[in-house]
């Protein structure tokens, strides 16, 4: 008798059984009673406790990403898997999407599995896609298993964070654009995540320091997709002389739009992307992009994970890794 | 007492214990004896059998890819994960690399885990990277768990294959290049996999039908990397008027090389990539590329997986999916 059987016998989904086990507010009292009655009849003990009592390592780590088809996240998962495999650990991979409710459900379900720890890839887990959403759900999860956050910063017990200095590098590169005479800098982002907010704050701080008033029409929230970026610019034709995008695909879209309209890059338009992906090398000219040292972030995360699991010594909860800007053909020096 | 403890007590790696359990030839008789003695002392039963006897579903599928940071494979994993999750199944993800020995070891280790079935993504598992390598290792694995192969065709009990018609589409597009007056067609591939061989066979057949002798210096095995392709062309400066690459990154490298040297595309050079990735949209002009219908292949694979696991009705072992050519700016119509 396992959670799947309980779900079937109760006539509810596994997610609902999971919610009952976690005493979630989202299940009605009536449903809760029905499920608990079935559990009592079947003498069911949730595996998560059984495992906790046995104290045995499962040699498995749960890894959660919003979207594995995203280049950046796929690279992160590849790096993490390699390090886990070296230590004979398995990876249970789950893809949650970006919506708050789905992220919570995926974490809840991962916690039901035989895992020693969880790694959450992407700052979406530390940020918010809606104003009402907070980080309480991962703080709660971290009470059950050690939780490692890549590109997020949540200050709570049993949550270990590794993030890059997005604020400092964004401030710095926006300042350099201004020094080079740019003053209408388009800021493109696809997210309201922790890391996107840091990038935006750096951009805004640089404008403020230079005494430039931010122009609302130049701060745009779009999807991180080459052709949708081109379409957005065709529809809105913003007046800009530089662009700083929080991911490379949007920056490539800007370059494509510029080439289509005969705008000279980098003479009349500077473009900077983020994540230093393969896309940055596909274009002519090649794209200047921020390298946020994903390999170092992932290595650091897995090293700390094994330190926590082995119980050896003090493990710092928060670590920052410094980004660098890779200068290529879409910006002047 | 589990496999990790047996490994530690025997002073060997987990992979070695796994090899002993699978009665592999690669372990010396001496090591085999040592490990088996520890197993006997500890009264150890491999979990794989215990699970087989209990007959209970683990609701987990093992997924093996050579490299998850590859765009194509990451997209496949995203599609598979979504379908598995819809059915409340988990994905145990493992990344094997491309070397025969590593692939065999990863499959052996996955079989030790609590999984209901295995999905192998990428034709490397059905092909060979060395001449001595064959598909016996996956045929053996399929005796233990149903095995689903994406982009490969292995005719054996309990192996279910879904693959695209790479031969037909390659034959067809090479014929069209010849009809358009091209006769020095560069063929770039990064692999000797099942699917790469089919593509090459289609290319060669088209040349043969047109009475064009294949030129060895125009059939090149390189890495699927934009800048390495550019370097290769700079060093070898082959004389060609068209290029057919078995993956988009190589085709983008060819376009970059052409732009650098002022070659007019598609007027004086036609370029065709494969997999219709995001890279194909990053360039100006955009890249003509073969769409091998990955979504359909993955959906079909997971649907058949659940049919096999539920034991409902007859499930065909081999399914072919038709590719299409997405015509863009690097070829004439």
How would you portray this structure in words?
Two copies of one chain form a homodimer. Chain A is elongated. In chain A, α9 (194-209) links the parallel β6 (185-189) and β7. Chain A has 13 helices and twelve strands. Helix content of chain A is 44%, strand content 17%. Chain A folds into three domains: 3-52, Orthogonal Bundle (434 Repressor (Amino-terminal Domain)); 60-164 and 294-322, Rossmann fold (3-Layer(aba) Sandwich); 166-292, Response regulator (Rossmann fold, 3-Layer(aba) Sandwich), CATH 3.40.50.2300. By secondary structure, chain A is α/β, with parallel strands linked by helices. The first copy, chain A, has helices at residues 3-10, 14-21, 29-42, 47-54, 71-86, 100-111, 136-141, 166-179, 194-209, 226-236, 248-260, 279-282, 294-310, and strands spanning 60-65, 90-95, 117-121, 147-150, 159-164, 185-189, 219-221, 242-245, 270-274, 288-291, 318-321, 324-326. In chain A, the strands form two sheets. In chain A, strands 2-1-3-4-5-11 form a six-stranded parallel β-sheet, with helices on both faces.
Distance between the termini of chain A: 65 Å
Q: What name does the CATH topology of the largest domain in chain A carry?
A: Rossmann fold
Largest sheet of chain A: 6 strands, parallel
Strand order of the largest sheet of chain A: 2-1-3-4-5-11
Low-confidence sequence ranges of chain A: 47-54
Give me the strand/helix succession of chain A: HHHHEHEHEHEEHEHEHEHEHEHEE
Q: Greatest interface and its residue counts?
A: A-B, 45 and 45 residues
Strand content of chain A: 15-25%
**In the residues of chain A, how many domains can be counted?**
3
Taking all Cα atoms into account, the compactness measure Rg of chain A is 23 Å
Task: Examine the secondary-structure arrangement and name the CATH architecture of the largest domain in chain A.
Answer: 3-Layer(aba) Sandwich
Structural class of chain A: alpha/beta
Mean residue pLDDT of chain A: 89
Let me know the number of strands of chain A: 12
Please name the fourth-level CATH homologous superfamily of the largest domain in chain A.
Response regulator
Q: In CATH, what is the class of the largest domain in chain A?
A: Alpha Beta
Number of helices in the DSSP assignment of chain A = 13
Assign a percent range to the helix content of chain A: 40-55%
The geometry of chain A reads as: elongated
């Amino acid at each position: 008798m396992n959670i799947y059987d309980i779900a079937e016998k109760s006539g509810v989904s596994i997610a609902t059984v999971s919610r009952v086990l976690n005493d979630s507010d989202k299940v009605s009292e009536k449903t809760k009673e029905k499920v608990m009655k079935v559990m009592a009849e079947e003498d069911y003990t949730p595996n998560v406790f059984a495992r906790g009592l046995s104290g045995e390592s499962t040699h498995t780590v749960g890894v959660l990403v919003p979207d594995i088809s995203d280049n950046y996240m796929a690279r992160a998962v590849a790096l993490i898997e390699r390090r886990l495999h070296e230590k004979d650990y398995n990876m249970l991979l789950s893809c949650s999407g970006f919506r708050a409710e789905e992220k919570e459900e995926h974490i809840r379900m991962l916690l039901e599995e035989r895992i020693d720890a969880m790694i959450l890839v992407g700052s979406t887990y530390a940020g918010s896609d809606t104003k009402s959403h907070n980080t309480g759900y991962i703080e709660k999860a971290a009470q059950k298993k050690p939780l490692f956050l890549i590109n997020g910063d949540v200050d709570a017990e049993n949550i270990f964070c590794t993030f890059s200095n997005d604020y400092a590098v964004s401030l710095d590169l926006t300042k350099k654009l201004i020094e080079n005479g740019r003053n209408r800098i388009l800021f493109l982002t696809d997210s309201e995540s922790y890391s996107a907010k840091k990038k935006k704050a750096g951009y805004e701080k640089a404008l403020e320091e230079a005494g430039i008033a931010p122009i609302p029409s130049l701060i745009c929230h779009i999807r991180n997709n080459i052709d949708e970026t081109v379409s957005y610019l065709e529809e809105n034709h913003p007046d800009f002389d530089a662009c700083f995008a929080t991911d490379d695909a949007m920056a490539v879209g800007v370059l494509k739009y510029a080439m289509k309209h005969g705008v000279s890059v980098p003479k009349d338009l500077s473009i900077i992307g983020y994540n230093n992906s393969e896309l940055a090398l596909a274009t002519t000219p090649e794209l200047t992009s921020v390298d946020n040292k994903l390999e170092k972030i992932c290595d650091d995360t897995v090293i700390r994970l094994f330190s926590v699991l082995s119980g050896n010594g003090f493990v710092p909860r928060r670590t920052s890794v410094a980004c660098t800007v890779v200068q290529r053909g879409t910006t002047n020096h």
